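Q: How would the structure tokens look for this protein?
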Amino acid sequence: MSKNSTKILLAEDDTNLGNLLSDYLRAKGYETVLASNGNEAFNLFAKGGFNLCLFDVMMPIKDGFTLAKDIRKIDETIPIIFLTAKSMKEDTLQGFQSGADDYISKPFSMEELLARINAVLRRTSPQTKEEISPIFNIGNYIFDYQKRILSINNIEQKLTSKENELLRLLCLNQGKMLDRTYALKAIWDDDNYFNARSMDVYIAKLRKHLSEDKNIEIMNVHGRGFRFFVHE
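A: Here is the predicted structure in token form.
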């Protein structure tokens, strides 16, 4: 996905920061639409056409977490990055549970923000997956990595970008240990505490998605990683 074809929805109630961020992103080639609160952002999103969402957490009328949950009801896969004024553990975990793909704590540099946006877009852009498009058979499930679809008995579940990448790593390491640090750096680009906790949230989501087949197990290896089994 080229920058010129990428449309970003930015929700930020601080007028000065919002204008600064939108001007910067436009200068970098991203079409950017600015909303001053969560309700306005939701109404803009409902009109369609966005490729990535950048949401401040603390906003009037509708906060960023609520906004993300509402958007996930209409689009389960669009990348969402949170801007948070503090890196509190509870806030970060709540953000990932709301469906975020990444977060960045204020104050941040424009270069860091741009790097995170580009990293998320690389993970979620279909063009980056054209060369690697395997179909995995997982017990009674079929996992289409390119389409981000997990299906069983003709019932399809659309996966988020991180669920998709994490399940692929588990499949590639089936029967072996998937190292936590490797998975974190491969998917989150950083193995810090907050990302490690968010990965645990996504592991729990994958267990739920795969729960229809009792022969499938994602086992924790304490302090080391995970083992993915399909028992005979």
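The chain has a mean pLDDT of 86.

The chain is about 40% helix and 25% strand.

Upvote if useful.
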